[in-house]
Design a protein that fits this description.
Largest sheet: 9 strands, mixed
Shape: globular
Number of strands: 9
CATH topology: TIM Barrel
Oligomer: single chain
Number of domains: 1
Order of helices and strands: HEEEHEHEEEHEHEH
Strand order of the largest sheet: 3-1-2-4-5-6-7-8-9
Strand content: 15-25%
Radius of gyration: 17 Å
Helix content: 25-40%
Number of helices: 6
Amino acid sequence: MSTGGPAALRTSARLRISEVFASIQGESTRTGLPTVFVRLTGCPLRCVWCDTEYAFQGGQLREVSDVLAEVACHGLRHVCVTGGEPLAQKACLLLLTALCDAGHSVSLETSGALDVSEVDPRVSRIMDLKAPGSGESERNLLENLASLRPDDEIKIVLADEGDYLWARTQIDTLALATRCAVLLSPVQGRLDPAQLAEWIVRDRLPVRLQLQLHKILWNDTRGR
């Protein structure tokens, strides 16, 4: 793993940060937990239904030590590093390790288009598998599947029935549920959650239906 090096070098590394805030985790099996979110700037993908386009650019260049200090001020154990696509910044690996070293329970939300094998093994990787409706399904790096552990998660966001049928095929042919938890999430305003629930039950899929709790609580308010 290439995230090592003296702690001082790790914490002096710099990243472009879009925002740091405390909220309730709205996705993954950690849904409902008070969590500090560290959103990194930048993403090489352009998913049709993306809801964090504001993180594509801008942000502030900050040292890892500065980010650690702000996270600590919130007094929460759980931390989620997200984006954009956080792994697009190489120093993200150093940030993840530093957060783990500081005693946090850390999750990473990543698109699945970039290599996850060098992420600190203490981090829970919440990895997307992009369905055709995203417009980015060709970017799926399927080699990542071999790196996943039982405490990681695969998230598939679905825009319509075609996406669902695609996801059902991937779950079967790639034996996704034998690797880790699989989460199916409807695009808000595009796919009725009740309809998705009916399909999951009908097909007896070994998955978890996921709704975006933060949008139910606060709609699309930034920083929540």
